Amino acid sequence: MIYNIEFETLPREALEAIQFRRLKTVLERAYAMVPFYRRKFQEAGITPADVKTLNDLQRLPFTTKKDLRDNYPFGMFAVPMDNVVRIHASSGTTGQPTVVGYTARDIASWSELMARALSAGGAGRGDIIHNAYGYGLFTGGLGIHYGAERLGASVIPISGGNTRRQVLIMKDFGPTILTCTPSYALHLAEVAQEAAIDFKELRFRAGIFGAEPWSERMREEIERKLHLSAVDIYGLSEVMGPGVSVECQEAKKGLHVFEDHFIPEIINPETGEVLPYGETGELVFTSITKEAFPVIRYRTRDISALNPEPCICGRTHVRMNRISGRTDDMLIIRGVNVFPSQIESVLMEIEEVEPHYQLMVDRVGNLDSLTVMVEVGEHAFSDEVRILQELEKKIAKNIKEFLGVSAKVKLVEPKTIARSEGKAQRVIDNRKL
Amino acid sequence: MRVEQISVFLENKAGRLAEVTRILSEAGVNIRALSLADTSDFGILRLIVNDNNKAKEALKQHGFTVGKTDVVAVEVEDRPGGLHKILDSLFHANVNVEYMYAFVQQSGSNAVIIFRFDNLDEAVKVLQANGVTVIEAEKLYAI
Q1: Chain A CB within 8 Å of residue B40 CB
Q2: pLDDT digits 0-9 by tens, A253-277
Q3: Which of A68, A333, B23, B142 is the most exposed place for a label (fewest CB within 10 A)?
Q4: Are the Cβ atoms of B41 and A410 closer than 8 angstroms?
């Protein structure tokens, strides 16, 4: 179901007209109210008046996580504190937390976007939403909560933790929609099993999962174990929180970015150059309706690509691919940008192999060499040398085709790739630069 | 007519073969025949053992990738031309040998060779039509 049929199905031209009008307003406010933006614009020799088309957005400087930290806690706010009704903050596990604020109108827009997202994920009036995202400074819990209320659904604000009790509530209250992180969904499945509660007997129909990267394989596992249809939701507190983009139940192929509120771009993380639709790079967002905390060309460090093709659901908003990694993981091999997640995608497409792999980069003479180590499981194994060598060649050929970089493929025994806390160490860079 | 062979994926590094023989020895499995095919980075160890399931379980438990393949054990006369006669008849019948290796012990006065064919049924038919003795699995394990 499309929650806001008018705005979610706008023809491209009308959408761009709205984007441009809103962009101008936000640029003027940021320039006038936030010293950081004014200084950055001045350094780049540009003023909001110089932005005459949507394309001129590309001339504006980027905003980074570091910029937000440097202005901790409220330095990036574009309204007086009198107008700020809510404050959230990122966890700050990788440094100082970043603090974001919302006006009453921001909360209203966010609720609307979350209502759209929940609706795209299959929820509606009459549904009971089991919301196991954490409530608190983290945007997940409250973001979903407000959207659920706006939608007219009943929300169980269970938050995270106390999983045994959650499972009992699921049994007794009969929620129909589950919202949490994908890893917590799988944890719920395990705990339910221990408590002898069968998800088949529960009433769940759909799940809206996000706040961490996950894969198509994980979706299959969740759908199988929880007996519901799972979609991906994306957001980050710096841009708003959950509800920046979401998959629709109809296609489940890429997340619609709510383009009447956010302008997405994909850039080459090395050069900052804007990449055309379809190419993989770093996702950048400009928020065009936020009052308290607008961000101009915010670099998310998330890797994705944009797909403008029309979707069967009827939404006209561009879709972003599910997040496949972080720019922090990027390798440059003989001048080519390589993301470990791209290698993973190549491996996923080869039926016999499992995505257990490790990349080793060496410098031989002056040349980088990339070795991709792939574990041989029972599907891939053969008693014939020829077949295994053909598999090595096929992997190397696909990597060359998709990434444009030559790699040596080495088959290794299962479990030889070190796994720490369930996460594999994907890259060993032996280059001494 | 089929004999079950197990195969094990090995990385080409020190101690891996010894690890396999250690596991099999601890599991009380007797190796009847083996061959190792290798490239610069990996090897495939093929084994005929007295208890396939026990061997497979033990190796899998230790994290090895193990496969099972049907092969054919053939008696070869222990005299010049003995093997040639067999290969020649297969060649004329257009049956490909993927690989072969010798069994450790003899069956009476004949040698035993393990063959892996691309088309096992066809190969057995050709061998029998040419008067070659194909050894049954039970008999082979008992040699």
Answers
A1: no
A2: 999 999 999 999 999 998 999 999 9
A3: B142
A4: yes
Q: Say which residues have a Cβ less than 8 Å from residue A135's Cβ, sequence separation at least 6.
A: A141, A142, A145, A157, A159
Residues B13 and B56 in one domain: yes
Count of structural domains within chain B = 2
**By residue range, what is the domain housing residue B76?**
70-142
Residues 371-410 of A with CB under 8 A from B: 376-378, 381-385, 388-389, 410
Distance between CA atoms of residues A381 and A413, nearest Å:
10
Instruction: Tell me how far CA of residue B16 lies from CA of A7, A413, A431, B43, B55, in angstroms.
Output: 63, 10, 28, 10, 16
Q: What is the pTM of this model?
A: 0.71
**A307, A277 contact by CB (below 8 A):** yes
B135/B75 same-domain check? yes
Question: Hey, is the C-beta of B114 within 8 angstroms of any chain A C-beta?
Answer: no
**Quick one: B25 and B48 in the same domain?**
yes
User: CATH code at B80?
Assistant: 3.30.2130.10
CA distance A196 to chain B (A): 29
Yes or no, beta carbons of B41 and A388 under 8 Å apart: no
A3 beta partners: none
- Are the CB atoms for A101 and A134 separated by under 8 Å? no
| A411/B64 touch (CB, cutoff 8 Å), yes or no | no
CB contact under 8 A, B65 and A412: no
- Going along chain A from its start, the domains and CATH numbers come out as 1-327 (3.40.50.12780), 330-429 (3.30.300.30)
B131 and B74 in one domain?
A: yes
Q: Is B63 on the interface with A (CB under 8 A)?
A: yes
pLDDT digits (tens, 9 = 90+) for A181-235: 988 898 899 899 989 999 999 999 999 999 887 888 789 989 999 999 999 999 9
ipTM: 0.86
